[in-house]
């Protein structure tokens, strides 16, 4: 199916859910980041941590806008070649959390930075965002496909404290 059309379809169907999410209290704390460019907001949410951290890092909601999270959560049955489907209640619960803390929620400095450079409307990947590409412009292309890295999505391969939300220069080491 046409990518663009599909994106619009997803937006249209979840539009009502997102309005609802707005009026509900969320799991995260407001502007909970330490203030640095390199710190992800510290957030906790049980279902997100259980369901979205089994195959990869639980990517911070601040790294993608709401429209992206709707697309990601609307296509979990075909999630980058994996079936990551969830029961509808858990899926809705996680989407509410992601939307409430998304890059365009105004709730973290990290999100503000990501949005300053957002060129696409609803990228499916953090690694496709202009913010990500610019932050990594010194990383040679060939590095991403090294066996020890696998792909740019494998943040923890280089960011040794990524699981704690720490991404500063001192904790980066590109594996051989
Ligand atoms: C069954 C395994 C699995 C589960 C569970 C899973 N994912 Fe993924 N996810 C993947 C794979 C595989 C990729 C592609 C990684 C790559 O390109 O190296 C991916 C990539 C992503 C990306 C894009 C990363 C990038 O910038 O390139 C996002 C965003 C994402 N997942 C969000 C989620 C969310 C949110 C959840 C929980 C609802 C979740 N994932 C659960 C397997 C999974
Ligand atoms: C191949 C190794 C590698 C991978 C994989 C990688 N990064 Fe990076 N990242 C780097 C390097 C190198 C820098 C530049 C560090 C510096 O500023 O000197 C960097 C910088 C950053 C910064 C800015 C840090 C600062 O001090 O301003 C953030 C935030 C970041 N990466 C997040 C991520 C996220 C999120 C992912 C996964 C989606 C990821 N990175 C994947 C190597 C990597």
Question: Secondary-structure map with pairings?
Answer:
Elements: H1 3-23, H2 46-51, H3 66-74, H4 88-100, H5 109-116, H6 130-135, H7 141-144
Bound molecules: heme C (HEC) (2 copies).
One heme C is lined by residues 51-52, 54-56, 59, 72, 76, 79-82, 84, 94, 125-127, 150-151, 153-154.
How many domains in all? 1
- The sequence of SSEs as H and E is HHHHHHH
Query: What amount of the residues lies in strands?
Result: under 5%
The span between the termini is 40 Å
The rough form would be described as globular
The main sheet comes to: none
- Which runs of at least 5 residues are low in confidence (pLDDT < 50)? 1-32
Give the bound compounds: heme C
Q: What is the radius of gyration computed over CA atoms, rounded to a whole number of angstroms?
A: 16 Å
pLDDT averaged residue by residue: 84
Measured as a percent range, the helix fraction is 25-40%
């Amino acid at each position: 199916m046409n990518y663009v059309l599909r994106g619009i379809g997803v937006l249209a169907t979840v539009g009502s859910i997102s309005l609802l999410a707005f009026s509900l209290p969320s799991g995260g704390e407001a502007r909970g980041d330490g203030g640095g460019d390199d710190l992800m907001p510290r957030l906790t949410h049980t279902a997100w941590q259980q369901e979205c951290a089994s195959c990869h890092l639980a990517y911070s909601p601040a790294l993608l806008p709401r429209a992206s999270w709707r697309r990601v959560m609307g296509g979990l049955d075909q999630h980058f070649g994996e079936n990551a489907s969830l029961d509808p209640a858990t899926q809705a619960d996680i989407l509410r959390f992601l939307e409430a803390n998304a890059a365009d929620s105004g709730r973290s400095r990290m999100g503000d930075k990501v949005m300053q450079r957002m060129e696409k409307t609803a990228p499916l990947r953090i690694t496709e965002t202009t913010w990500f590409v610019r932050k990594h412009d010194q990383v040679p292309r060939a590095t991403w496909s090294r066996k020890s890295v696998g792909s740019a999505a494998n943040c923890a391969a280089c960011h040794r404290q990524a699981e704690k939300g720490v991404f500063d220069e001192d904790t980066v080491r590109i594996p051989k």
